[in-house]
Write a structure and sequence with these properties.
The complex is a heterodimer of chains A (333) and B (332). Chain A has 333 residues and is of the alpha/beta class. Chain A has a domain of 90 residues. Chain A has twelve helices and twelve strands. In chain A, a hairpin with a 2-residue loop joins strand 4 and strand 5. In chain A, helix 3 crosses helix 4, helix 4 packs across helix 6 and helix 6 packs parallel to helix 7. Chain A is globular. Chain B is an alpha/beta fold and 332 residues long. In chain B, the strands form two sheets. In chain B, strands 7-8-9-3-10-11-13-12 form an eight-stranded mixed beta sheet, sandwiched between helices. In chain B, strand 10 and strand 11 form a beta hairpin. In chain B, helix 3 packs parallel to helix 5. The longest helix of chain B has 18 residues. Chain B is globular, with a radius of gyration of 21 Å. The model of chain B has no long low-confidence stretch (mean pLDDT 89). Classes of the chains: A alpha/beta (333), B alpha/beta (332). At the A-B interface, helix 7, helix 8, helix 9 and helix 10 of A face helix 6, helix 7, helix 9 and helix 10 of B.
């Protein structure tokens, strides 16, 4: 099997809707080492959440894995039964959802919800589970844990609820934590607290994190590697420095130009990406970004560019780079 | 240019929250806020959720009846009320043509059963701005073009549009009465980054072309800084700092503004790794039971006894730079 903690090869996933096949993921490949932080950025509908959910077998009907292989921690996820999957979820890989207001069950106490996971995945008894839940709340920086365990989600603020979600996710010390826009629903000062906490816990527990977000600021500050998704494909992949300082794909460049920066010294006009994201029901034949791209060429419209490598860690799917990539390959050889 | 178009003095907006008679409790959503906006400028309002920025915008338009305060528009007092005192309130009808609002959620603020043409045409009908059907139709098409949509969009329904396009419809509706002043209440926060830039640029173009004045409300300080001439920062119903946008981001004085700015992740890995965050402890207190004295004191690293008993005064520290804090010298 693979040497990586997580390896996805050419994953294809579609939703079979009455209106036709929606190709949510097209040949997505990525890998992750132990203890690494990968950021997945992209607009809504670019497939970033679907990629992560499919890892946990959470693809909802009518979605279906059409091709590719997913290997995680010695398992081939494609072949796993629902029973095996249930064992893995929460135990080896855990997820934090975007909205802490709706992802906790309002009719159970916080303690009940944390203990449930522990009882399910370990052979601890109720008493031990309770002690562990207490410990977890302390770990995520919630004061008066004994009191909080008895409270219900509505009694806690948004930031607190997200901390509880993190506590639940960490209860079995997973090797991989998927964070799906964990701070989008929170205020900036609370966001800073949660990000700080996640990085601290990563150091302490040594888990890998996949951070899904649309905020380039967040990936810049915490991620080592970044995958940029557009139209169900990873169109560029590289280290944080490579993506921010040497972007190769026109979409990545456009994205970086279109955000206002707080530390700008003078007022500059934003350069938006014109047009709207593609319709995945009828994706264009070539590069998904071609209809919005300023430097679109004939070939872009009918042929998907292959991955062009610039370094061991950096590749992009864009025809404009063909010449440069070939030169790079020649010098490497 | 340096004429005040809108001026708000000591605006208070309380909402009742349970209890009877003497025990009646109030949420002080906006508590004593004063600011003015020059003709043709953009004033940005930032703050966390629940700080009262949206309420300020709405009370200003008198979509809510303010509890107390004075609102002046173009030199004319349109509302004045002191707590327990006499009340002056102009009829808003003529002003509805001059001041308008663009709402946050482009999914909820458009009637799903009306065509886009009718949505944009509604203000025209209400204010009798068109003589006949032809003129009304032409005006609608002109408005749609102005916001980057075209004539065939007039017969469609909101669900056929993407978020960015819907927000454009909302803006066209606000422009229908040819207003001078628009309150933009988080107009881009529901949009994707690449679309956000399109809409921001459109706001800027329209301002130049039509000479509009904006009150731009958002929680994203980078966006607000980009579009505004001056920025006001709110915390729990109070204005804590107000200054020119470059001055505010470079030389902020209030401890809350400082932590707010440091908490925003910057999209540049090298800067992000080297910058130090001031992480605030705890959560925003409930506005039902706000802390005494300075409202920020429960989370402020500089707070002392004075902050607990005395509310800091709103003073001009430098030309055009206002702040409300007892310890400005300590935190700078």
């Amino acid at each position: 099997m693979s040497e990586y903690l997580l390896q996805i090869e050419n994953e294809r996933l579609s939703f079979f809707t009455p209106a036709g096949e929606v190709k949510a993921l097209n040949n997505v490949s990525l890998h992750l080492n132990d203890g690494e932080v990968l950021g997945i950025v992209g607009e809504s509908g670019s497939g970033k959440s679907v990629t992560a959910y499919s890892l946990m077998g959470l693809t909802a009907h009518p979605g279906k894995l059409v091709g590719g292989t997913l290997d995680f921690n010695g398992h081939r996820i494609n072949d796993m039964s629902e029973r095996e999957m249930r064992k893995m979820r929460g135990n080896e890989v855990a997820i934090i959802f975007q909205d802490p207001m709706t992802s906790l069950n309002p009719v159970y106490s916080i303690g009940n919800q944390i203990e449930e996971v522990i009882l399910l995945h370990t052979d601890k008894n109720r008493k031990e589970a309770h002690a562990r839940a207490r410990e977890l709340l302390e770990l995520v920086g919630i004061n008066e844990p004994e009191k909080r365990l008895k409270q219900y989600p509505h009694e806690l603020s948004g930031g607190m609820r997200q901390r509880v979600m993190i506590a639940i996710a960490l209860s079995c010390e997973p090797k991989l934590l998927i964070a799906d826009e964990p701070t989008t629903a929170l205020d900036v000062t609370i966001q800073a607290q949660i990000l700080e906490l996640m990085m601290e816990l990563k150091e302490k527990l040594g888990m890998a994190i996949i951070m899904i977000t649309h905020d380039l600021g967040i990936v810049a500050s915490i991620c080592e590697r970044i995958a940029v998704m557009y139209g169900g494909r990873i169109i560029e992949y590289g280290t944080a420095d490579e993506i921010f300082y040497e972007p190769k794909h026109e979409y990545t460049k456009g994205l970086l130009r279109s955000i206002p920066r707080l530390d700008a010294e003078e007022k500059e006009r934003l350069v938006p990406i014109e047009g709207t994201p593609i319709d995945l029901l009828n994706p264009p034949a070539g590069c998904p970004f071609a209809p919005r791209c300023d430097s679109c060429m004939k070939i872009c419209l009918h042929q998907m560019p292959p991955a062009m490598e610039f370094s061991e860690t950096h590749y992009a799917h864009c025809w404009l780079n063909q010449k440069q990539a070939m030169e790079g390959a020649a010098t490497n050889a | 240019m340096h004429e005040k178009l809108v001026e708000v003095e000591h605006l208070k907006q309380y909402f009742p929250a349970g209890g009877f008679g003497k025990n009646r409790r109030y949420i002080k959503a906006v508590d004593d806020v004063s600011f003015y906006i020059h003709k043709g400028e953009t004033l940005g309002l930032v703050g966390e959720s629940g700080c009262g920025k949206t309420t300020t915008g709405r009370s200003l338009l008198r979509l809510y009846e303010p509890t107390a305060g004075k609102i002046t528009y173009d030199g004319k007092v349109i509302f004045q009320k002191e707590e327990g005192g006499a009340r002056i309130a102009e009829s808003m009808t003529p002003y509805r043509k001059k001041m308008h609002i663009v709402f946050q959620d482009p999914y909820a603020s458009l009637d799903p059963r009306m065509t886009v043409g009718d949505i944009v045409g509604e203000p025209i009908d209400i204010h009798n701005l068109a003589k006949d059907k032809k003129e009304r139709y032409d005006r609608i098409i002109e408005l749609l073009r102005q916001v980057g949509l075209n004539s065939e969009h007039a017969n469609r329904y909101p669900h056929e549009f993407s978020g960015g396009q819907r927000q454009r419809v909302g803006i066209a509706r606000a422009l229908a009465v040819s207003p001078e002043f628009i309150v933009c209440d988080e107009p881009v926060s529901a949009l994707d980054v690449s679309i956000q830039a399109q809409v921001i640029n459109m706001f800027e173009d329209l301002q130049q072309k039509l000479g509009l004045t904006y009150l731009f409300i958002a929680h994203d300080l980078s966006v607000v800084k980009h579009i505004s001439n001056r920025i006001g920062v709110m915390y729990l119903g109070n204005m804590v700092e107000l200054a020119d946008s470059f001055e505010l981001t470079a030389h902020c004085m209030h401890p809350y503004t400082q932590s707010l700015i440091s908490a925003i992740p910057i999209a540049d890995p090298k800067v992000a790794r080297s910058s130090k965050r001031i992480v605030l402890e705890g959560d925003v207190p409930s506005p039902l039971n706000p802390p005494s004295g300075c409202r920020f004191r429960t989370r402020c690293p500089y707070a002392d006894e004075q902050c607990a008993c005395e509310r800091p005064a709103w003073k001009e520290v430098k030309a055009g730079h206002y702040a409300a804090c007892h310890h400005l010298d300590k935190c700078n």
